[in-house]
UniProtKB/TrEMBL annotation:
PROSITE patterns: HTH_TETR_2. The keyword Transmembrane does not apply. It comes from Streptomyces humidus. Residues 4-64 form the HTH tetR-type domain. This is Transcriptional regulator. InterPro entries: Homeodomain-like_sf (IPR009057), HTH-type_TetR-like_transc_reg (IPR050109), HTH_TetR (IPR001647). Residues 27-46 bind DNA. Keywords: DNA-binding, Transcription, Transcription regulation. One of its GO terms (molecular function) is DNA-binding transcription factor activity. It comes from the Bacteria.
């Protein structure tokens, strides 16, 4: 779905609110105040708050997961795929995603979307790791570990820093590369 620049501006503002105030702070009045628009202007773009929330989360899913998964899959080399995934992970809106994960625990619709995002992210990581290490079981473990690193970082971001996240992801990539190299050695 193509998103207009005006709608993207609303979505970006919503993510700023999610990052700074959590999902409980994401309200129509707060959004309009931050954007400097009236509620009438909001309703010119969106028929309801529910429609806005749905489109905003769909936009996040598309931009932060589907588009990046497609980009990674377009690379034939699994190391390049993993590098795209590492770089993309470092640029995710981590605080906003932590708020969405909290929101997903109280809203079943958001919960299903969060599960879809997690599943899609794990799948693309699994595919890259499988192409690298050549084993489904190990690829699954590496993909799971990548998800644990991401989710753990987002949930504990107050004690984490982006450099630590990058280090952990690069160590994961390095470990998978070492497994791949060991498998390639003659017996």
């Amino acid at each position: 779905m193509r998103t207009s620049k005006d709608a993207t501006r609303y979505f970006d503002c919503a993510f700023d609110i999610l990052a700074s105030e959590g999902f409980g702070g994401l309200k129509l009045a707060a959004l309009c105040r931050r954007l400097g628009v009236t509620t009438g202007a909001f309703y010119h773009h969106f028929p309801s708050w529910g429609a806005f929330s749905h489109r905003c989360l769909d936009h996040w899913h598309e931009e932060a997961t589907t588009r990046l998964a497609t980009l990674a899959r377009s690379e034939p080399d699994p190391l390049d795929q993993l590098e795209i995934l590492v770089s993309a992970t470092l640029t995710l809106p981590h605080r906003a995603e932590a708020a969405i994960r909290a929101w997903s625990t109280v809203d079943p619709v958001v919960g299903r979307l969060q599960e879809d995002v997690d599943r899609e992210r794990r799948t693309v990581a699994f595919e890259a790791f499988r192409a690298l290490v050549g084993d489904d079981e190990d690829a699954g473990r590496f993909a799971d570990l990548g998800m644990y690193i991401l989710i753990g970082f987002q949930q504990a971001e107050s004690i984490g820093d982006p450099q630590s996240l990058e280090w952990a992801l690069r160590m994961l990539k390095r470990a998978a590369t070492e497994v791949s190299t060991q498998r390639a050695l003659p017996d």
